[in-house]
Known about the structure:
Structural class: alpha/beta
Helix content: 40-55%
Number of helices: 13
Number of strands: 12
Radius of gyration: 21 Å
Distance between the termini: 23 Å
Strand content: 15-25%
Bound molecules: nicotinamide-adenine-dinucleotide
Amino acid sequence: MLQTTHQSITAAAKRLGMDQAEIDALLQLDALHQFDITLDNGKMFTAFRAQHNKHRGPYKGGIRFHEKVTAEEVQALATLMSLKTAAIGLPLGGGKGGVVVNPKELTMGELEELSRKYVRGLQQHIGPEQDIPAPDVNTNAQIMDWMVDEYEALTGDQSRATFTGKSLKLGGSQGREAATGKGGVIALREYLAVSGYEIQHKPLKIAVQGIGNVGEYFIRTVEAEHADWKIVALSDSQNTIVNPDDASRVVAFKQAGGKLAEYDAEVLPADAIFAQDVDVLVLAALDNAITDNNKEKVHATILLELANGPIDEAAEKYLLQNGKQIIPDIIANAGGVIVSYLEWRQNMEREQWSLKQVNDELTIYMKQAVEAMYRYARQHNTTLKEAAIALAIKRLT
Ligand code: NAD
């Protein structure tokens, strides 16, 4: 993963005319903190925090609790966070942390102790102006609450601005849960506006792969804000539902424990989602959803990447050659990190904004990012992804 990340940044930097010394400086990690955490019962875990680039502001990025966390993985993910925050235009750098652990094997008490001891190990290297972690794989608001409480106990800092993704009670922000899905809707709306895309179907037809957190809020936002768009298909890992009367009712059915196979509508296998006759395919499930094996099935003209890396390199090349437009993950799924930044700002300013204030700011950042990416791509004859990465690199150097 680290190698692939470095290769793609190097290729983009070379296109910008950067020399090897400049590229090496861009790839260089500022710091990798590695330490052991020992619980009172003797269980031991390895922990990391990678800090990539602080040129634009404090390091920002999640902490994951997973058995497969490695130093290389957190380094790659921290580097990608620097690119993402720069591509969006946030005054933040890139960081990522992790603990090599399967949290499902811990009791609640052990999980709390692990979270608090992670903070003790990193106390000198994090802080509101230094490094601001957030939830990631297998971490959540409860874990951030323990961490911010521990940081406050150790340092006396009462801003709560050292961690984002906290509960509302401990300084979290309105709108965080919906942010990535909602940000995806704003990205799509802005892309349609700036590109002058000629809609083939009225209303605009959309298929959504994945109805977890991101897919759910994408669908709910479309239904609340866009009478001129229609979700005509949606899928989970087992099935695709076609032409539901109301897509959010399908989501609610699944959340209540229902199986899509039993939903009262046309039910197809999961991979039928790709072949739907729609304008937009939203990829909100997992990485490498579209590969060499299924790239030819894709019918939509626009692909919105809400998952990270949902289209592999070979498939991307094929789809672009066949006239598809891909709105890249680095911008399309940035709603979460934007609202994380807004949470930090609220904490720093000792404020609690309304949902409307948060969503208005989210919209401003998303619109600016999509517009700048589109303009750059047109001016330099690049793909949208190349444009977003080029803009990010320019802002990082
Ligand atoms: P989630 O675990 O809540 O949901 C993922 C959904 O994908 C699940 O409902 C699962 O059933 C479904 N799925 C798995 N395999 C599938 C398949 N083959 N076909 C269709 N559906 C399938 O996760 P999430 O938080 O919604 O995140 C989705 C993606 O977005 C992930 O790649 C994540 O890294 C990325 N992402 C999430 C956020 C965020 O704020 N949650 C931010 C940026 C990126």
